[in-house]
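A protein record in our archive is deliberately plain, so that people and models can read it alike. The tokens are whole numbers drawn from a learned vocabulary of local backbone shapes. For reference, a complete record is included directly beneath this paragraph.
>
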Amino acid sequence: MPEISTFFGIFIYIYFREHNPPHFHAVYGGEQILIEIKTLKILKGHLSPRALGLVMEWAAIHQNELIRAWEQALSHQIPDKIEPLK
């Protein structure tokens, strides 16, 4: 499971051999959430409101890079790292 970004204790992953729709995983503490890349819709899971807000802000800034990382992972390439939220 390639880690593509980390910020404020939040880890962002895109896994190899994933299912559609294109999405990423965010992990913070013991919580995990799956978010669709194109719509930023929560597909599954839960994060605290503060962590979720940070993840959504980051994802909105980096949607194009997330799509590219998704495509790389599906092609069994290690996805490029994406700049963290600052």
User: Anything to note?
Assistant: The chain has a mean pLDDT of 94.
